[in-house]
Amino acid sequence: MTIHVQPVVRPEACPALVLNADFRPLSYYPLSIWCWQDAIKAVFLDRVNIVSEYDKVVRSPTFEIRLPSVISLKTYVKPSRHPAFTRFNVFLRDRFTCQYCGAREDLTFDHVIPRSKGGQTTWENVVAACAPCNLKKADRLPREVEMWPRQNPFAPTVHDLHSNGRLFPPNYLHDSWLDYLYWDSELEP
């Protein structure tokens, strides 16, 4: 006789995909997910609709609820038109690739025109660079060391970052999320 034991699913393993009121993810990369506690709190505050649920139930002495796997905001949040300048967003714009040699490990960011030579910390002057390339270039101009970025740095749109984010799907996607995510399987990072 074979006994099948159901694996114990801890609530921590049940994040909720958060959709805007138009049923699109608030963000693709990082993927807009909330921990189960925040999802339940939003349900009780009547800020979200439950779109899909896990089989996992959580209980209190007087109440029980299945954990939401997909929730949608009741009020539409207008997406930002201009992404924030952050280290992460620079890496995402540059597809997590050194703009000098193509490496994908040990990324830092580099000022194409060094700050010591008047360069500013802006989208148009910062690129992803691996630590060895950043050390090699140091505080010199590209022409001084013959190191040119593979693409000219630019201020990306939210669409640019979302498109690049789709190239790097998370390691885990719950089946209930797939109808709301549009990962392009033909594009490779």
TrEMBL record:
Protein source organism: Microvirga subterranea
CDD domains, sorted: HNHc (cd00085)
Single GO MF descriptor: endonuclease activity
InterPro entries xrefs: HNH (IPR002711), HNH_nuc (IPR003615), NA-targeting_endonuclease (IPR052892)
Domain of life: Bacteria
Alphabetically ordered keywords of this record: Endonuclease, Hydrolase, Nuclease
Gene3D superfamilies: 1.10.30.50
UniProt name for this protein: 5-methylcytosine-specific restriction endonuclease McrA
Residue span, HNH nuclease domain: 85-135
